[in-house]
Structure to design on (560 residues):
């Protein structure tokens, strides 16, 4: 179902017009309310009057994660504290967390965006929906929660942890939809199997997954193990949280709620805009945000804008799957390697469990990449030669995809740590040295 | 005689074999024979135990990667040349052995064989 026909199916001309008007208003607002932006614009010798249409956006300065850190905690807020009704914070592993403030209006837009997503996945007010993102400072839990309530679904704030109890609730309450990270979905499937419950007897049919990049092979794995349709939900806390973009029934790219979030794809090197179809860094301008509006925020997520109309009827532009984050990218002996490439190889081979870990090290001044993989019990062999052949098959496939040689290590089942939140798939020992 | 052997995939890290032994001991399961085949980073522990089904159950519960394999249990006199006689027969009839291990009890030597062709191996042994 299309939740907001007017905005999701708006003609391209009308949308550009709307975006242009909203951008004009936004630039005026930040110029007068956020010293950071006024200073940047003065340095670049531009004034709000220079921004007339959405095409003028390229004249505006970029914003980076570092800018948010430098203005910690509330330097990027554009309204007085009395108008901020909620604050979320991102989990920074180093240094200051990123603080995001929302006005009442921001929260209303957020829940409406989530309702658009959930409706696109086929969810309605008849669904019983459990939110298994972490609740708290992270935007996933509360974001999905209020959006699902706004849709009218029955919301179960399951959060993460105590997965067995969650499985029990899924069965006993007849939960039909779930939102979580893709790695939690796999963990949930394993728990269901371990508890001896037949997944086909559950009413679960729709899964909403986000907060970490995932691959098509991961989608197939989740869909077959949980017997559901799995959809991508994209978002990031700096921009709003989940709900910035979402897949429709076509499962082919995610539509951006572009009346609120204007997307650009830039080359991370030249910072120039790239044409549709070309892969680059995704950049967002929050057209309607009041609490912490951002101009041209560099997400570090790598993807492309897709060309052509979507058969679902929505006109909002689509982005491709996130192919990785520019800061997830590993450079191994000068070659760019994304963990998602490894995932796609491992999940493409039925012999392996969908859990893996990359260990990067530097030995004798040479980068090494070790991939730990769990063999499914049906494919274990009693003979060393059989196991060595399997190991070689995975190593050869990885080498042909990554173009660097990989040391494969076969590990025992359940030995790679399962995670209910974001899983730690990469251990880069070079950083620690 | 065809019997069931437990084969356990283990990473080469300290104490794993000990953990298998402890898991079985807690349940009163006796290990009658075992052998370990290793590579640099993993190994396969092959076990003959007193209660196969129970052993599989407790090992799986403890997250060990255990599988069941058919092997042949043969016996010969526990004296010099006893094993050679059997192996000669195998060679004569072109029966290939993937792996084997043995243990002795008094006058009898017990041999566990994993041939590529089970049926042929049994026929040869019965000759
Ligand atoms: Zn669509």
């Amino acid at each position: 179902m299309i939740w907001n026909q007017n905005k999701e199916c708006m003609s391209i001309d009308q949308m550009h017009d709307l975006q242009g008007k909203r951008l004009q208003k936004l630039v005026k607002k930040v110029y007068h309310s956020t010293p950071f932006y006024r200073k940047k614009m003065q340095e670049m010798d531009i004034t709000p009057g220079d921004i007339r249409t959405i095409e003028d956006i390229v004249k505006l300065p970029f914003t980076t994660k570092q800018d948010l850190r430098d203005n910690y905690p509330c330097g990027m807020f554009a309204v007085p504290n009395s108008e901020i009704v909620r604050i979320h914070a991102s989990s920074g592993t180093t240094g200051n967390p990123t603080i995001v403030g929302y006005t009442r209006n921001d929260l209303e837009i957020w829940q409406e965006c989530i309702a658009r997503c959930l409706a696109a996945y086929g969810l309605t007010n008849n669904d019983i929906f459990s939110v298994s993102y972490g609740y708290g400072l992270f935007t996933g839990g509360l974001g999905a929660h209020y959006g699902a309530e706004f849709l009218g679904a029955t919301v179960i704030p399951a959060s993460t942890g105590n997965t067995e109890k969650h499985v029990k609730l899924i069965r006993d309450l007849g939960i039909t939809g779930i939102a979580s990270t893709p790695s939690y979905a796999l963990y949930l499937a394993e728990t269901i199997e371990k508890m001896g419950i037949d997944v086909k007897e559950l009413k679960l049919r729709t899964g909403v997954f986000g907060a970490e990049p995932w691959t098509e092979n991961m989608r197939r794995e989740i869909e077959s193990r949980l017997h559901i349709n799995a959809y991508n939900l994209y978002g990031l806390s700096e921009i709003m949280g989940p709900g910035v973009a979402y897949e429709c029934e076509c499962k082919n790219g995610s539509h951006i709620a572009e009346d609120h979030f204007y997307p650009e794809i830039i080359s991370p090197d030249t910072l120039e805009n790239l044409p549709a179809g070309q892969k680059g860094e995704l950049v967002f301008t929050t057209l309607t945000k009041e609490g912490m509006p951002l101009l041209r925020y560099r997400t570090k997520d790598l993807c492309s804008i897709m060309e052509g109309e979507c058969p679902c009827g929505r006109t909002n532009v689509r982005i491709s799957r996130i192919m990785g984050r520019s800061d997830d990218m590993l450079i191994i002996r000068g070659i760019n390697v994304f963990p998602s490439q490894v995932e796609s190889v491992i999940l493409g081979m039925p012999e392996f469990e969908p859990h893996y870990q990359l260990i990067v090290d530097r030995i004798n001044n040479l980068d090494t990449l070790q991939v730990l993989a769990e063999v499914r019990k049906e494919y274990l062999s009693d003979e060393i030669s059989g196991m060595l052949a399997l190991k070689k098959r995975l190593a050869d496939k990885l080498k042909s995809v990554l173009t660097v040689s990989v040391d494969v290590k076969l590990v025992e089942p359940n030995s790679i740590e399962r995670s209910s939140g974001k899983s730690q798939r990469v251990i880069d020992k070079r950083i620690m040295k | 005689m065809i019997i069931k052997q437990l084969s356990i995939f283990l990473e080469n890290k300290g104490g794993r074999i000990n953990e298998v032994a402890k898991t079985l001991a807690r349940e009163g399961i006796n290990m009658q024979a075992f052998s370990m085949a290793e590579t640099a980073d993993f190994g396969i522990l092959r076990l003959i135990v007193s209660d196969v089904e129970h052993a599989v159950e407790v090992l799986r519960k403890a997250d060990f990667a255990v599988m069941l394999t058919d092997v042949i249990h043969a016996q010969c006199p526990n004296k010099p040349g006893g094993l050679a006689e059997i192996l000669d027969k195998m060679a004569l009839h072109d029966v290939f052995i993937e792996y084997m291990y043995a243990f002795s009890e008094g006058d009898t030597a017990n041999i566990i064989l994993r041939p590529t062709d089970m049926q042929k191996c049994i026929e040869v042994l019965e000759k």
